[in-house]
């Protein structure tokens, strides 16, 4: 594992060792959770949907009025350079993810404690997909359990989840509550009106009579995997609707699954202690996972198991 | 100014140079804004209300289920040791503040990228009060202007402001909006029902007919300076009520002021473009500021000017 | 009328006399309103949409986590058997309705007061359609008046109306309020946002420029007659939308009608004291009623009058 | 146990055997959860706070506009008569509770299925306190665990909990959710704003620095035991406040306890997986329980154990 | 009656005939309901609480940012002058009320249609109290009926009722709804949470066990008569609480009454179709009315009857 | 300019001079903001969409239960007559707008102060379009700036904006707040959930990837220009969606524009201090403006400049 400690991180213009990938306690990121980020993964060492992720990164920056001082092309080039610098550390079969972290930098009021000049913090990391992927290696076949924590999604008018920011203490609370309900369960938060919103870093889909349903794109992060699933479904002639969904609908669904950039899609086989559909991984899910894998040339579930076998959990 | 770069920071058990006061990008603090903090200041180099701040720190940790692995006495001792280690850097007349930052440490899912063992992040910094204090040096006499931004306080059921956490992107949004309304104005957020909640790191009081009013202690941080003002008022035989306050009440008030641990109390002379009372700093404010100063043996407004004169703005 | 007292009720596995169709005061049904039910009616002695009703029954049971210990086929068989046992009591022209009532049975904490074994309560009743039908016999021609009571629909996140449960005290309150506004008026409840939700056991449709509109399927019971009307409309090339509707829309509609399993559809000719459209029963309504009647082989309005003539009101 | 099957129940004017304490499926109670009730217990065979319970019963009837056709004195007399009729079945040491259930009777629209005359349903039962009491016999010493379910309290504007009605499906949902979080845990529901409301048939108190706090009397049943505790506390010179309480306050409390007519008061030693105070039964609780016991001449915790020993669980 | 047509109205600096008391259709008052007002009445030709009314007038102007170009002393003088100019038209026993109407004047964007110079509109009228008073002449003895309309009070964060403005279409809707529920009934609006707010130009009090309760001063006009009643009660040693009140509390009250500047206080004998207390005018009300009358030297109920006798209804 | 003072206003059946276009202070319009209105403009002296405006006028009257005593044809005829009477005052190139104002007339309770008979107030004015048009003459090319004020749109359940009434104090508050944020900026109000609602007398559209988006027709006035734009877009094969839009969507839009009957459409180039799209007037806007101009035979932007040149600002 020690090889990964050789990773080089892009840090505000320089490549630094992994151990230097640290942010000043005077940075807006730390003082106010005032940082945006993105997670992009590769398949076969090719970044997947990188442009979409970078677009969303710039959208988040725009909402938060952060001027990162890099144009979109510069940000992309820095990303590609960072990948190139680290690629030798990734053997075949082990994909990476690219993590962008951007804040407006240190709080200027504290300038007397800070080396000059003050500038935005831009971090680009290229990291092995190990942690998240190995932890779900069995889930592609066995499915996961979803629970509803007491914590509700923060309405977007208070803190807009469409900007992917680091102010996400409430996700941590939801994770802790879910663990108390059932170990290793996955929380899906309700919004203020009791509609399904999103997981703590994943979107949710229901399947009923061959049609896909997913929450409206307001109180959620508009996930890029979510969009990708919607586009795949269109190509597969599966109707998809963005609509209001309730726990009742979850209980009546034939299938359900979660989407995220890291593990792509995971089947849900239990909801609030009751089986989803017949409690088994369903055919629509399997078709989507297979199609995704074909698109990117990777057997996604198989890769996860191989990574786990090699890198332990 | 360079002297301050000699400061030593307590970092998870060790004293490190100021430049090393940096948090891993894999820390919960950064990834989820999942960190609690406190700011305590000194008067004449004596920590003020330190026990209250530490009590609240432990309360925040309890709400967030963070086990920092220090008992309260240990945390206090570490604090006192850190003060002692840094005190020589503070000349007379320059007070410090003590900043505590605590997270549950790096995200365990990423353990393969992290040096072992994983442990909570506990940072104690002793820093000059310069930034915040010099910026308000004139405000003790001239007062500040308050505006209502479009951003509303997040209701406590979504993200409890009584725990002083680093997930405060919404405060940053409020600050940006306030700056657009009027440069150097101070935002006070309304709660979901339109009642005054709090500033972006300060509490608010109104004075009407010799009585003090401050928002109920639910959708706000229960400020230690807020409590201190309430106790001072009691000693001065000024009635104080925690109640629901609206913009209407602000407009009808005789006086208003803001409280925070750094600058203690600041008078508000304008609200939403209209004068508060007669638009001048009022007598109740002055009496409270003077009393506070007497209690701690510092002429608070005077000290601010002197610090600004010496350390620039 | 006394003949009906000969009716046999299916009660947790046995057929009992009507007079024995009583539920223990220790049953969840009574102690907590914790019972689900369905009402299915016949046309020409044929159960109408029975499968849909049984599906919804099982959906309600699933939401409430009640295990009734009958599989869906067993429930259906028990239903058909109960119909058969009672059919001789129904002369031609008099249809019946089938009522299912299911609870999880007596509260186990009180087991010492209860005969053993404890088991779920499953009641299937086959009853004459007389009461509800005779009371509306004139309404097919004269229409009904709708009013908005002060009582609001309970949002589904508190008590989901999609499960047809017996906790419906609020419907009773709405009925009492409506009677105070105008005798024999029909309440339609607004939801928390002021949108039309549903009646106290019926759904509502508006007609404007040949298009049908009905509230979104969230804060309402998803009525089987409501669905049937939507399907009929599709066959008749009438567009139908599920959307947010407000009192304003009701006042601007050309026509309006209510749907329920018992009386099918009833025209609304007055809303909040003002005529709906021209205040007369409209052509879209008439076309729908006629189509429904043709589908089931019954002149629905005529049957109601005949039943009233024969069995009094 | 079989002796209790000899109990006589007052049923709309007559005393009937326990096995006949059943309500018609055509009764408002069953069809609409439209029934009010009360639970009063005895100590040493003396009804406790009976007048308060009857007052609240009549208040509930008034809110629901149910005319039970008994004046308050008649209701009380019927109650006393029913007690007298059943008292011989209760040996010393075994207290009873008196349960009142009142509905407006069968739905008049269904009169053709009903024996005449239609009249309100009034049931008075005198039952052994066994179930609830034996199940908590250990809790007086060991305390109970409280959890926050996802289900929220229904705001009183939708369904007023101050009227003790049988439409309480949502309490059942809360109980089921609590059992999934932790077996035998006790749910306390949050209201729409995230404030503590009540349990599923009990009120909640917090103790901090010798002062009692309990939720405001709006979105809750105004429990008679709750009132009794407030009065006891006044006599013991313990301040009591009805105020808004949040999970944060629960976590910061020194002690907490639940109140209900059956078991009086039970200590809470765990909240959301964390200890309350030091995780042990606290002195304020013990003082209140002892005082209560002295007032009624019963060692409450001891009685519970004896009943359990004798009547099993 | 024609004498009253001789009344002189103060209109932006001049006294004009009653028939000229008209506002341009280009005035903010008309175009945006953007006008504040006050109603002050006399007793024995002495203005009652005039200073309080003028204070509130200036408070409303301040909230709306209207500069009326009169200082408070000038406004008072203009008021007294207008009274003096009209007093000869009022015979003994006939009191007047003083009505202030102030807007920021015509919309400047339309200046080309307007005579110059543009200036605020300030109207002071001194009018006989006939209309409102004669219509309630019997109510002092017989009481009035209160109903809850479907219209809810607008929360103060949207439109602050503490400023007495002319944007009150919603009061008109409430009045129309109340008339449909019961002719001549008086609506009391609920706020968004179901708490009693206020009538359409009156405040409400409940009496229970000798204590007065009235809604909190947030979503209501802070009536000057309301304040006066609270002060009278204090002098009479009747406790008064501003608190949250619900329909349940109204139904449980011993007495209730309404307050307004015109008729002072009116007893409520029916609420939502049910008697308040015993359905008769209660002793607390009578004591308050009598005290008020003594304070101002007028038998208030008697005066109303005499005015009605003389001036018809 | 003095020529316009010759205008004749239709006032409840008569033509009166402009200076007599004044409303009694006893009128519902003034006392309760209880008046509905419409603004229709001409192009080349032809009324534009007059029938739609009159339809909406009657819809507003219906919602408010105002009987204006004119049938729709009579109202139209009166309108045409008033145009005809005033047309000679409008030279070529200067269009007019027609303003309808209707209230239920004076408050009957005050009948003793009023000339008889009481009747509804119906005012029809034909006025030059100068004010609004000249003020925006540059905006067709330079665009306008939009800001979000703290004031929120009143939800339709409290005060329905679909009826165009004169109770719009809250719009005035929004205008004042916007002016404080940025002089000459245009406020767009958020609704209670943070979705874009409408301006203070205009609707809003966003354009993204060639598709138009506009808020759902619930918490807004359903603008006739809004509808006209939607129909134009359909003819131009531009997709249009009514949907929920948030500040995030505004920031991500390529273009945005405002619609109103007076100036038709105005481009938005800045939102909350940040450029919309590239900060320039966009092609979709230009195409719509041009199409509109072609439809009505007027170069809309050019006309505005000419009017300003001639009639000053």
Describe the fold and architecture.
The structure is a homohexamer of 313-residue chains. The longest helix of chain A is centred in the first third of the chain and has 15 residues, at 50-64. The first copy, chain A, is α+β, with helices and mostly antiparallel strands. Chain A is globular and about 60 Å long. In chain A, 58% of the residues are buried. The first copy, chain A, is built from 10 helices and 16 strands. Chain A folds into 2 domains: 2-128, D-amino Acid Aminotransferase, Chain A, domain 1, CATH 3.30.470.10; 135-311, D-amino Acid Aminotransferase, Chain A, domain 2. The first copy, chain A, starts with 7 loop residues before the first strand and ends with a helix. Chains in contact: A-B, A-C, A-D, A-F, B-D, B-E, B-F, C-D, C-E, C-F, D-E, E-F. At the A-B interface, β3, α1, β7, α4 and α6 of A face β3, α1, β7, α4 and α6 of B. β3 (22-24) of chain C pairs antiparallel with β3 (22-24) of chain D, so a sheet runs across the interface.
């Amino acid at each position: 594992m020690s090889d990964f400690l050789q990773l080089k991180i892009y840090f505000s213009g320089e490549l630094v060792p992994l151990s230097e990938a640290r942010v000043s306690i005077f940075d807006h990121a730390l003082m106010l959770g005032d940082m945006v980020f993105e997670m992009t993964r590769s398949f076969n060492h090719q970044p997947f949907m990188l442009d979409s992720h970078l677009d969303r990164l710039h959208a988040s920056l725009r909402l938060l009025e952060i001027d990162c001082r890099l144009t979109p092309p510069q940000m992309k080039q820095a990303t590609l350079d960072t990948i190139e610098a680290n690629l030798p550390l990734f053997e075949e079969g082990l994909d990476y993810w690219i993590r962008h972290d951007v804040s407006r930098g240190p709080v200027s009021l504290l300038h007397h404690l800070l080396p000059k000049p003050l500038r935005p913090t831009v971090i680009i990391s290229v990291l092995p997909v190990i942690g998240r992927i190995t932890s779900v290696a069995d889930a592609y076949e066995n499915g996961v359990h979803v629970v509803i924590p007491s914590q509700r999604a923060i309405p977007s008018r208070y803190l807009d989840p469409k900007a992917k920011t680091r102010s996400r203490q409430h996700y941590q609370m939801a994770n802790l509550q879910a663990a108390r309900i059932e170990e290793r369960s996955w929380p899906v938060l309700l919004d203020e009106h009791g509609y399904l919103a999103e997981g703590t870093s994943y979107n949710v889909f229901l399947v009923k009579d061959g049609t896909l349903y997913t929450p409206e794109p307001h109180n959620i992060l508009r996930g890029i995997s979510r969009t990708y699933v919607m586009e795949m479904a269109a190509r597969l002639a599966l109707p998809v609707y963005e609509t209001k969904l309730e726990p009742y609908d979850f209980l009546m669904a034939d299938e359900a699954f979660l989407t995220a950039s890291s593990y792509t899609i995971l089947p849900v086989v239990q909801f609030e202690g009751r089986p989803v559909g017949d409690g088994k991984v369903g055919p629509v899910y399997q078709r989507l996972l297979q199609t995704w894998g074909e698109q990117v040339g990777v057997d996604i579930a198989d890769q996860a198991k191989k990574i786990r076998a090699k890198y332990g959990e």
